[in-house]
Amino acid sequence: MTEQTIAEAVAQQVADLEPIQPRRRWRWLARNNAGLYVGGAILLLVFACALVPGLIATGDPLGINLGARLITPGTPGHRLGTDALGHDVLRLIVHGTRTSVLIAAVAVLFAAIFGVLLGLLSGYFGGWVDIVIMRWTDIQLSFPFILLALVVLALFGGGVENMILVLALGGWMDFARVVRSQVLSTKRLTYVSAAVAMGAGWMRILFRHLLPSVLSSIIVLLTLNLSVNILFEAALTFLGLGISPQTPTWGGMLSDGQVYMSSAWWVTTFPGLAIMMTALAINIVGDWLRDQLDPRLSGGR
């Protein structure tokens, strides 16, 4: 074996041991995850319904037509049937997407901002700051979410804004705990110690050096909590604690159709499927993002 052949063999072995580049790993994970395409397609459809519902299902979603009540699915003009007031089920689902997704997305954004900020402060400063924030987190985690929702909605009433407030108050703890645990280990790294030695202020260290190191976990939590918020919003509206009946929502459709489950199954089945498929698609994409953002989960490829 010549020296050139040996050198080429060694170079090939080194190349095989090198970790895959981010762009290549992105393509590899996408190519080997068929569920990602299904989940991505569902999310694109959901976002399209939320952004331009009028283009997908034209007409007034709350227009009453008692002459067309409880029409079965498959009827021309009413592909998914109608409810007890003659509302077109497809039109209600499409227009209800905007409210349900908007509430869930805004609530998880507020929860992330508040929870990440508290987690950064708790993990970096430690001491009494950490004790106060973590005990507050533990107390709220032990407080039943449904009871918190009852208290807030009873005091301030229903509506979109108050529903966002309830979901944000019930979801910031996960962000705080995860960010705190990562900051506790990250703040001991050399580059953070060097920034402290060079006289960098605590705000610069938090947002310039520590925050980027926890962004991957924050993104994954955002996706997972988004699906949870969609389920919570539907559950609270189903119980009559959330959005008013004048606003189309998936939870409201479930609540209105529960009386007709035996005689008109489609009134509750189709909005229930919309909730389930949206939550499933978000979880699939969230799992894929977790694999993409954490090299340890890529199997070294």
Record the SSE blueprint.
Blueprint: H1 3-17, H2 22-31, H3 34-51, H4 53-56, H5 89-125, H6 127-141, H7 145-156, H8 160-169, H9 172-186, H10 190-197, H11 202-210, H12 215-238, H13 250-257, H14 266-293
Would you kindly provide a written description of the structure presented here, covering whatever features stand out?
- The structure is a single chain.
- This protein is mainly α.
- The protein contains 14 helices and no strands.
- Helix 10 (190-197) packs antiparallel against helix 11 and helix 12 runs antiparallel to helix 14 (266-293).
- Residues 3-22 have low confidence and may be disordered.
Whole-number tally of structural domains: 1
Q: What is the average of the pLDDT values?
A: 82
Class by alpha and beta content:
mainly alpha
Low-confidence stretches: 3-22
CATH homologous superfamily descriptor: MetI-like
- SSE ordering: HHHHHHHHHHHHHH
CATH architecture annotation: Orthogonal Bundle
Q: What is the CATH C-level name?
A: Mainly Alpha
| SS element count, helices | 14
Distance between the termini: 30 Å
Q: How many strand segments?
A: 0
TL;DR?
This protein is mainly α. The chain has helices spanning 3-17, 22-31, 34-51, 53-56, 89-125, 127-141, 145-156, 160-169, 172-186, 190-197, 202-210, 215-238, 250-257, 266-293.
Top keywords for this entry?
MetI-like fold; disordered N terminus; mainly alpha; 301 residues
